[in-house]
Amino acid sequence: MQRIAVLTSGGDAPGMNAAVRAITRAGIAKGWEVFGVRNGYAGLLGDHMDPLRARNVGGIIQCGGTMLGSARSKAFATEEGRNTALANLKRRGIDALVVIGGNGSQTGSHSLATQGYAVVGVPSTIDNDLYGTDLTIGVDTAVNITLEAIDRLRTTGSSHQRAFLVETMGRHCGYIALMAGIAGGAEVIAIPECEVEPHDVAARLQAAYRRGKSHALVVVAEGAKNGARAMMQHFAEHRDRIGFELRVTQLGHVVRGGVPTAADRMLATRLGAAAVDQLALGNSGVVVGLRGGEMTTTPLAEVAHKTKPPDLALLDLARVLAQ
Ligand code: F6P
Question: What's this model's pTM, rounded to 2 decimal places?
Answer without folding.
Answer: 0.96
